[in-house]
Design brief:
The chain is of the alpha+beta class. The chain contains 3 helices and 7 strands, in the order H-E-E-E-E-E-E-E-H-H. The chain has a 5-stranded antiparallel sheet. The model has no long low-confidence stretch (mean pLDDT 97).
């Protein structure tokens, strides 16, 4: 089931998400809903706070090539356990900040530990777009948005655009 995506500014996007204590059927269903919502948007990552659930759950799939098989990840309680000193710059966007993009510098490679849908602890190294995406989504769990990496002027400009967009959406 597709879920509505919260649009910045929304106080729920700034909250630190709670750890997931146990994997219930409801949480697995939420993960499936989030993948459906992300693919439909279309996006390459989505965090539970973006659909109004303050829990440490993210989904991502950075496969974008036409005809290439999707590689969805579902991560409960993800955490970066190692990051490279080497950085990379990607133009990032966010489903909660539609049509706004900015170049963000992050570690080029990260190692992430998480619990998968089966309750198994996994650790994997990510690089390139995958590394950027997983860091962006984990930031959401800390109440941090990609625009928080920008200077105050640019951040305020984007926030004003989002306030205007939300007013227009409310008018229908």
């Amino acid at each position: 089931m597709k879920r509505p995506i919260l649009i910045h500014p929304d106080p729920r996007l700034k909250q630190v998400a709670a750890p997931v204590a146990d994997l219930t059927d409801a949480r697995r269903a939420l993960a499936a809903d989030m993948l459906e919502t992300m693919y439909d948007a279309p996006g390459i990552g989505l965090a539970a706070p973006q659909v109004g659930v303050s829990e440490r759950l993210i989904v991502l799939d950075c496969v974008k090539e036409e005809g290439e098989k999707p590689r969805p990840y579902v991560m409960f309680n993800p955490e970066v356990v190692a990051a490279s000193d080497v950085t990379s710059v990607y133009e990032e966007g966010c489903l909660s900040i539609p049509e706004q993009y900015a170049e963000i510098t992050r570690p080029a490679e990260v190692e992430v530990r998480w619990i998968d849908m089966d309750g198994t602890e996994r650790t994997e190294a990510f690089e390139g777009l995958w590394a950027t995406c997983v860091q962006h989504e984990i930031d959401h769990l800390e109440g941090k948005l990609f625009i928080d990496y920008l200077g105050p002027m640019k951040r305020q400009l984007i926030t004003r655009r989002m306030q205007k967009l939300k007013r227009e959406m409310a008018r229908g």
